[in-house]
Amino acid sequence: EIMTDCRIRLYQESDYGMVREVYAQCVKDLTPDGFYQALRFSHIRLFMLAIFLLSLLTTGSFLVSVLGIILVMVVLWMCSREFFHSYVHVTFSNDMLDIGKYYLQREGYGFWVAECGGKVVGTVAAAPLTHVGGKKHVELRRMAVIKSHRGRGIAKALCKTIIDFARKKGFQAVILETSIAQVGGQ
């Protein structure tokens, strides 16, 4: 079912709690992706191999070596989780502390929500960037769509909203930066 009961609209102060909840959940949901991406790094794999071999050489126990690997993986998971939870905390202390003031009361900024059935299910923001050479660019920020509503074209509609905003305001490009864990945004 494609965006039939959904609409994209400008953020309202009454959305504050739901917007923060949606954004926080979407960012925290990146924990597994961050963990699996970390496991792909060769230096992480080499470290795990070294732990396994050192444990095996020092204890002579295969079980202890496997437990060493499991411990490394648990620590890696906790680091991934902490990274994304900290990112939410920093974001909520900065631009998302007062969304209306930061995004709606400043020239070249904007914040929109995707609303389905009266419930906020997605967010997106725009912030101006001064690019090298003085060109006016706008950054697509705070993109989030809750899991239950993904695959319905909501993120595409939110992106189109930013592109339309950029054209209307005279920006020359829309910039999107993602982390390695944000596979959907790449």
TrEMBL record:
Sequence intervals crossing the membrane: 46-78
Matches recorded under InterPro entries: Acyl_CoA_acyltransferase, GNAT_dom, NAT_camello-type
UniProt key word DNA-binding: no
Keyword Nucleus: no
Domain spans labelled N-acetyltransferase: 71-186
Keywords in alphabetical order: Membrane, Transferase, Transmembrane, Transmembrane helix
Any one GO molecular-function label of the UniProt entry: N-acetyltransferase activity
PANTHER family per record: 8B (PUTATIVE,_PSEUDO-RELATED (PTHR13947:SF58), GNAT FAMILY N-ACETYLTRANSFERASE (PTHR13947)
Name of the molecule in the record: Probable N-acetyltransferase camello
Protein source organism: Pelobates cultripes
